[in-house]
Write a structure and sequence with these properties.
With 330 residues, the protein is an alpha/beta fold. It has helices at 10-18, 25-30, 59-72, 86-95, 117-133, 158-174, 204-209, 255-275, 281-288, 292-304; strands at 38-40, 44-45, 47-53, 77-81, 104-108, 140-144, 178-184, 212-218, 225-231, 237-242, 250-254, 279-280, 308-310, 315-318. It folds into three domains: 1-33, no CATH class; 38-248, Rossmann fold (3-Layer(aba) Sandwich), CATH 3.40.50.300; 259-328, Orthogonal Bundle (Arc Repressor Mutant, subunit A), CATH 1.10.10.10. The strands form three sheets. A nine-stranded mixed β-sheet has the order 5-4-6-7-3-8-9-10-11. A hairpin with a 6-residue loop joins strand 8 and strand 9 (225-231).
């Protein structure tokens, strides 16, 4: 319930008579304004969101998983698959649980391409208006890829991106919808960057105009992926990605929890090697019920950190200065 708006002091009232659009912090504080709406908490707000990452890392699959979550919550999604044909998209929608779903509306760009980015935005605008008037509003528009939204140009500067992305942001807020667009990164799919925004191709104009940025990249240890969520309205978030089905990444909890689990696994290896000096890698994996490839990766990291070492017979030994303190593990 809105509290009573305080009476403005004379000097502020005089100022507002000439500049009627201004408000004071005292007035804004008591207005009954709902908090920013998220279709998916911490990941997909109302507004313009850009998801970036290397080619073939799975951005399209991630967007379709978002679509599934929105639809499962009672929403409707329009997906513009600019790089798909019907046969490819049919396979993907079956894999992500979107088959036989009327609330999932899609258009494959390889079979119908608009002549210009302005025409494309006008058609999306018309589509949102039509569904609103039918009392079947679309909650999210997913555009794969952002190239459809931009005029053909080799420009790569701040003004170019802000000029052509800002109308999409305004369109999203007009219809209280989320517009999610994917863009490729020039980086390799296996590359890891401490600053995930290095994966966003283009100028800082994208980062400035978009309300939210999502970045997919390989994890630091190369054993999975990480989804970074960076926005204007909340704390940054890092989510762990794992290929549970062997096809595409799925969100598997917080990345900090996965790092903690990895640290615990490394500590188990150090403890076992300390108790069994001269042990072989295959025996470590068997004793600790761990995947041999995973043990190999962790042993290499532990050797780089000088926690264990390997002799010429492929046997592992604890280092003499090993503190066996899990807080110091890499």
């Amino acid at each position: 319930m809105m509290s009573k708006i305080p009476e403005a002091p004379p000097w502020f009232a005089e100022l507002r008579s000439e500049f009627p659009g201004i408000k004071s912090g005292a007035e804004l504080a008591v207005l009954d304004i709902p908090p920013p709406k998220f279709l998916i908490p911490g990941l997909l707000p109302v507004g313009l969101t850009v998801i970036a990452g290397p080619p073939k890392i799975g951005k399209s699959y991630m967007m379709m998983q978002f679509a599934k979550e929105i639809i499962d919550g009672g929403g409707t999604v329009f997906y513009s698959a600019g790089e798909d044909a019907d046969d490819m998209h049919k396979e993907r929608q079956a894999q992500t649980g979107l088959a036989d779903c009327w609330q999932y509306i899609f258009q494959c760009g390889k079979e119908r391409v608009f002549s210009s980015s302005d025409e494309y935005r006008a058609k999306v605008h018309q589509f949102l208006e039509k569904t609103k008037n039918m009392n079947e509003p679309v909650d999210a528009v997913m555009i794969d890829t952002m190239r459809s939204m931009m005029p053909d140009s080799n420009k790569n500067d701040y003004e170019y991106y802000t000029k052509h992305l800002d109308p999409w942001s305004k369109l999203a807020f007009k219809y209280k919808a989320s517009i999610l667009a994917s863009t490729h990164s020039p980086k390799g799919a296996k590359d890891y960057y401490p600053n995930p925004l290095d994966h966003v191709i283009g100028s800082v104009g994208i980062q400035a105009t978009a309300d939210w940025i999502l970045v997919m990249q390989s994890s630091e240890d190369g054993r999975g992926g990480v989804l970074h969520s960076i926005g204007k309205m909340g704390a940054d978030l890092e989510l762990s990605l794992q290929k549970k089905n062997g096809i595409f990444y799925e969100i598997d909890g917080l990345e900090k929890d996965r790092k903690l689990q990895r640290k615990k696994a490394q500590n188990r290896i150090v403890e076992y090697v300390t108790a069994n000096p001269g042990i072989r890698q295959v025996d470590i994996a068997k004793a600790l019920n761990m995947d041999k490839g995973n043990v190999s990766v962790k042993c290499k990291k532990l050797m780089r950190g000088n926690y264990i070492y390997m002799n010429g017979e492929d046997r592992y030994y604890p280092t003499t200065n090993n503190s066996n303190n899990s807080n110091n593990l890499p």
